[in-house]
Amino acid sequence: MTTRDLVLAALFAAIIVALGLLPPIMLGFIPVPITAQSMGVMLAGVILGARRGTVAVLLVLLLAAIGLPVLSGGRGGLAVFAAPTTGYLIGWVFAAFTTGLIAQRFVKPSQTSLIQTLGFFAAAVAGGVVVLYAFGITYLAFITGIGMSKAFLGSMAFIPGDLVKAVVAALAGRAVMAGYPLLPARA
Amino acid sequence: MNSLYVEGDSFFHRLPPRPKLVLLLLASLALFLTRSPLLLGLAAGAAALLYGSLGIGWRQSWIRLRPILLTIMIVALATLILNSVEDGVTVLLRLTTLMMVAAAVTATVPIGAFIDEVTHAAWPLERLGLVRAADIGLSVGLVIRFVPEVVSRYQQLRQAHQARGLKVRATTMIVPLIIQTLKSADEVAAAIDARGIRGQRQARNLEDSR
Questions:
Q1: Helix crossing, B58-82 with A132-144: angle to 10°?
Q2: Which residues contact B172 (CB under 8 A, 6 or more apart)?
Q3: Residues 93-152 of A with CB under 8 A from B
């Protein structure tokens, strides 16, 4: 990894941490408050691509593990990895990787902005919803023994919020690509 | 950014980081080997004693553990309703025990010592050529350094929105925030290489790859 890639990943990790400092917002039609932090994971993949995006997310988790309150709501420390929702944190890494992989494969600077946005949206949903929930739900089912279907139903309430985040991440990813393109990764 | 480390002179504070991390790992495995409420109850009691011995105080402990405790409570309650009382109690005891041991490790290992442990643990990965162990400490330092910067950029952007009578929207805030932040990457990278912080060998590799 070049120094520039390392710095980009570190800067993005700082952005993800900063997004966690924003107060959670309530959207009228969803019963749960949504935080901007998990959108940072989608953004990392969409903007930095698989490798650097994954490193950025790993850095955030590392900071949390060594005892810095970097997760939304000021959470941090090894105790956050002892919660029933730890699967989602582990899933972040794979979510950023999947989002990044799809984004860098299928979104090209030559495409129209609509195609690019749709490509980023698909990437954000595949990583930040499908892969993320696969990890989160499996872990929740394993740790509580309530079974996959009940764990799945319990997590449904958060999916609309994450779809909204995927839309914002796709729009932002497209705009950043137009303003300061980092994909495809420069050597 | 304040770390969750708490100064103190308890037995657990004086224990070096590695045995503490090994203890946490063993606890996380052992807790899932048993379903006996008695054993899990004893473990929870021991973990509570351990956490209590650190001298953090009730109020501070509550503030620290509240968010995680709340999630555990909700999930344990859901398990209790969906499955059985026994399952709910098992989840509650396992996770609170693990939470307290983990929080005890976090409260007694300073960030610097933690980074040393992580760097040490990354050595085998460096042998495989996957990461450079020294990069880990550097990146952690960079993130800690840049978080306040990103936050102040966010506030500037919000003021700029307000000065123009615009509503603060996610899409109009995030894009300039990200572009402004990432644009400093080249300068920061050049500064790191100019100081040879990642070593001369790396700098030459960089030249070769361009």
A1: 90
A2: B161, B166
A3: 140, 143-146, 150
